[in-house]
Design a protein that fits this description.
By secondary structure, this protein is of the alpha+beta class. It has eleven helices and eleven strands. A four-stranded antiparallel β-sheet has the order 4-5-9-8, covered by helices on one side. Strands 3-6-7 form a three-stranded mixed β-sheet. A two-stranded antiparallel sheet has the order 1-2.
């Protein structure tokens, strides 16, 4: 956290190695993302030229051990996601889709041959992956998926569609979840396969420096070697989603922190009625409330990260972090914008961009409503989803 927002010296809770990760990723964001993100966002382009640099920093599959991956701790991964999202949610999303979703699916559920073939190439950024779970008619209810894979001799035939799939148009492989006669199964689908089509969803008002797509599968023929052998139910993609949700618990704080810092610095420089905005009681109240939420969110993220590293994290705990930290981050962005007045809507200030992005972050990997019901079920023992 920055000196301005760290009211409790939370920085002292991090190890030297964790702080080194923070400083390394922060330097990358300051050097490569901040000077360019307004242009990328305005033109709605994802900067593929920074992928090799992200790979060199060990950000792709950062939490995976072996196979050319960095093998860093959960807290170190979370710190990296926080710093990336302080630059832009879309850039953090790239790392999340590549590592926490596509690579995690192979690492958790793939064969040894699949891991050896794909993970080193993906960690190096030479192969890009996407993760196809959400469908046009099955968003929060993946059990309602309509994509099917039917056995045909020694192989499979894949048909269906997926929607809101990050990186689809630049991916080399797609991890696709499909309904079969044996239950939900996962497949590694080459995007150059006959019958595969990816179309970008645009124009967007959020996540503009990112790629979201619709995928369609028309009688794609796959071999048994393309199936993830360890994925035998819907629990498999949910395990990957929890990895991505964990990154969001940290990442959302980065967008909130950046908005707070901009507002605090602006308030100290902008004068009205012959004194800086920071000298007004209402401005101070706004800044204090934002800082308090950032501190609480940071402690929550750190607690969840330590539990994950010790193997004690339970599913509902990730929902606590995702629900709370996305909620407070978007509220901080909105409050921070008020301090900048009309200047806050300009693209050269990042606050409105963060707020727009967080509308998507708050929705994907489980909406507020989904995480509320997960927590409600944990508290009451009653399933309110159906």
């Amino acid at each position: 956290m920055s000196d301005l927002s760290d009211l409790l010296n939370i920085e002292a809770e991090f190890s030297p190695e964790e702080l080194q990760v923070r400083d390394t990723v922060r330097e990358f964001v300051d050097r490569r993302i901040r000077p360019n993100i307004a242009d990328w966002y305005e033109r709605a382009v994802f900067p593929t030229e920074i992928i090799p640099e992200m790979a060199e920093l060990g950000l792709l599959g950062m939490h995976i051990k072996g196979y050319g991956c960095a093998g860093r701790s959960s807290v170190e991964y979370g710190i990296a996601m926080q710093e990336l999202e302080a630059g832009d949610s879309g850039l953090r999303t790239f790392v999340s889709v590549q590592g926490s979703l596509a690579m995690s699916a192979i690492a958790k559920h793939g064969s040894e041959e699949q891991k050896q073939k794909w993970l080193p190439e993906m960690a190096a950024g030479r192969v890009i992956g996407c993760f196809g779970l959400t469908e046009p008619n099955a968003g929060s209810d993946p059990a309602g998926m309509e994509t099917t894979a039917v056995r045909d001799g020694d192989g499979w035939v894949l048909n269906g569609a997926k929607r809101w799939i990050g990186l689809g148009t630049i991916a080399n492989i797609a991890i696709v979840w499909a309904r079969t006669d044996e239950g939900v199964r996962g497949f590694i689908v080459p995007t150059d396969a006959e019958g595969f089509k990816a179309e970008a969803l645009e124009p967007k008002m959020s996540m503009r420096a990112s790629i979201q797509c619709e995928l369609t599968f028309d009688n794609i023929r796959l071999t048994e070697a393309d199936r993830l052998p360890g994925a035998t139910s819907l629990r498999a993609p949910f395990e990957c989603l929890n990895e991505a949700r964990f990154g969001i618990v940290w990442g959302a704080l980065g967008a909130g922190r950046d908005s707070f810092e901009i507002a605090a610095n602006y308030a100290g420089e902008r004068k009205q009625f012959n004194k800086p905005l920071s000298a007004f009681q209402i401005t101070q109240q706004k800044l204090v409330n934002m800082a308090l939420e950032l501190n609480k969110g940071q402690l929550l993220a750190l607690r969840i990260g330590r539990l994950k590293d010790s193997g004690e994290l339970e599913r509902h705990m990730i929902s606590v972090g995702k629900l709370n930290n996305c909620r407070i981050a978007i509220d901080i962005c909105r409050e921070a914008r008020t301090i900048l007045g009309g200047n806050g809507i300009l693209l050269d200030q990042s606050i409105m961009r963060h707020a727009n992005n967080l509308e998507s972050v708050r929705t994907y990997e489980g909406t507020d409503e989904v995480h509320t019901l997960i927590l409600g079920q944990h508290i009451t023992g009653e399933n309110a989803f159906v």
